């Protein structure tokens, strides 16, 4: 029997270098190894590479050696200062022609500066914002947002998908960093509410397990996002379902409850102060969506 189907083509996994072996970089190097990539690693503290070397990674002796080992260089460092500390000391020739996938988090401005810094040295930066903890690396249900040259992204997309789903959002190098920071604003602020509730629960002898059902309900804010999105886009701040004056009274009840428990009130006081500013600006009868406007300028 003959077949007209084209023979299957197999492309060997491309070699990858991972620089920075904190929890995130280590998980990433591990995910590349799992997919059969030749992985070269470098870390300031070389001993962090031990487990990866046992699994087949190659530990580069120098940063230049790490850069020379692959066309795709994944950077997972604490911040961009660490990136300059590592790459700034290397022979610039080793950077030429490299695609630096910078999964280090920092500000959008710093991501733009770093893209220009890389370009001056003949390298291309793809900025990435990883939307998962290390435990989600290697899971296609996790996502990383990328920005930077589309051509470089397309060339390395298949490799990057060893880490998470790869979502290219645009060419502007600061964009992925901005989207990452938007994510973190919501993440840290919402999670701080959870920590605060745990402290209050603990002051009343309740455990994390006791709080769990209520926390799962309270932290699921999707219905609020869905409800407010069209109103926000339409500039509709009518106080038909919620009013800022009511929000202030509620926020003050939280402050009083927290104070009565003898625990730190700084966080609920900051929330109450936000509502108070809105009321003082004459928005007491408006919806809480008006707080976006209040937050849109510096507090007096
Ligand atoms: P860590 O801060 O734990 O790891 C940082 C790495 O940076 C280590 O390899 C460390 O080297 C290196 N480093 C720090 N400063 C310097 C320096 N001056 N010179 C050389 N190397 C340096 O971070 P994570 O692994 O947790 O995360 C990496 C990046 O990923 C961060 O930008 C983080 O914001 C981001 N991220 C992390 C998430 C997480 O849940 N962990 C989630 C999403 C994003 P050494 O081992 O020698 O100290």
From TrEMBL:
<dbReference type="Pfam" id="PF21761">
    <property type="entry name" value="RedAm-like_C"/>
</dbReference>
<comment type="similarity">
    <text>Belongs to the HIBADH-related family.</text>
</comment>
<feature type="domain" description="6-phosphogluconate dehydrogenase NADP-binding">
    <location>
        <begin position="16"/>
        <end position="165"/>
    </location>
</feature>
<protein>
    <submittedName>
        <fullName>6-phosphogluconate dehydrogenase</fullName>
    </submittedName>
</protein>
<dbReference type="InterPro" id="IPR013328">
    <property type="entry name" value="6PGD_dom2"/>
</dbReference>
<dbReference type="InterPro" id="IPR006115">
    <property type="entry name" value="6PGDH_NADP-bd"/>
</dbReference>
<dbReference type="GO" id="GO:0050661">
    <property type="term" value="F:NADP binding"/>
</dbReference>
<dbReference type="Pfam" id="PF03446">
    <property type="entry name" value="NAD_binding_2"/>
</dbReference>
<keyword id="KW-0560">Oxidoreductase</keyword>
<dbReference type="InterPro" id="IPR015815">
    <property type="entry name" value="HIBADH-related"/>
</dbReference>
<dbReference type="InterPro" id="IPR008927">
    <property type="entry name" value="6-PGluconate_DH-like_C_sf"/>
</dbReference>
<dbReference type="InterPro" id="IPR051265">
    <property type="entry name" value="HIBADH-related_NP60_sf"/>
</dbReference>
<dbReference type="InterPro" id="IPR048666">
    <property type="entry name" value="RedAm-like_C"/>
</dbReference>
<dbReference type="GO" id="GO:0016491">
    <property type="term" value="F:oxidoreductase activity"/>
</dbReference>
<dbReference type="InterPro" id="IPR036291">
    <property type="entry name" value="NAD(P)-bd_dom_sf"/>
</dbReference>
<feature type="domain" description="NADPH-dependent reductive aminase-like C-terminal">
    <location>
        <begin position="172"/>
        <end position="296"/>
    </location>
</feature>
């Amino acid at each position: 029997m003959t077949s007209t189907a084209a023979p299957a083509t197999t492309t060997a996994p491309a070699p990858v270098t991972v620089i920075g072996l904190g929890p995130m970089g280590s998980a990433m190097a591990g995910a590349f190894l799992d997919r059969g990539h030749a992985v070269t690693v470098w870390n300031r503290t070389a001993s962090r590479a031990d487990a990866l070397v046992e699994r087949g990674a190659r530990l580069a002796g120098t940063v230049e050696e790490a850069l020379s080992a692959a066309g795709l260089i994944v950077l997972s460092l604490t911040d961009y200062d660490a990136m300059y500390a590592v790459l700034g000391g290397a022979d610039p020739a080793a950077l030429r022609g490299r695609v630096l996938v910078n999964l280090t988090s920092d500000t959008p401005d710093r991501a733009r500066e770093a893209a220009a810094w890389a370009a001056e040295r003949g390298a291309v930066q793809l900025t990435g914002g990883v939307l998962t903890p290390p435990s989600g690396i290697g899971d296609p249900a996790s996502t990383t947002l990328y920005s930077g040259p589309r051509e470089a992204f397309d060339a390395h997309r298949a490799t990057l998908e060893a880490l998470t789903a790869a979502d290219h959002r645009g060419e502007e190098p600061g964009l992925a960093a901005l989207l990452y920071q938007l994510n973190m604003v919501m993440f840290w602020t919402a999670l701080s509410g959870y920590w605060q509730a745990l402290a209050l629960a603990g002051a009343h002898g309740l455990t994390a397990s006791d709080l769990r059902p209520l926390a799962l309900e309270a932290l699921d804010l999707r219905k609020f996002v869905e409800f407010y999105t069209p109103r926000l886009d339409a500039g509709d701040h009518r106080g038909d379902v919620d009013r800022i004056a009511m929000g202030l009274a509620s926020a003050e009840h939280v402050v009083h409850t927290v104070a009565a428990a003898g625990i730190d009130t700084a966080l609920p006081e900051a929330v109450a102060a936000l509502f108070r500013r809105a009321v003082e600006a004459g928005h007491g009868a408006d919806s809480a969506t008006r707080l976006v406007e209040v937050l849109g300028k510096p507090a007096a």
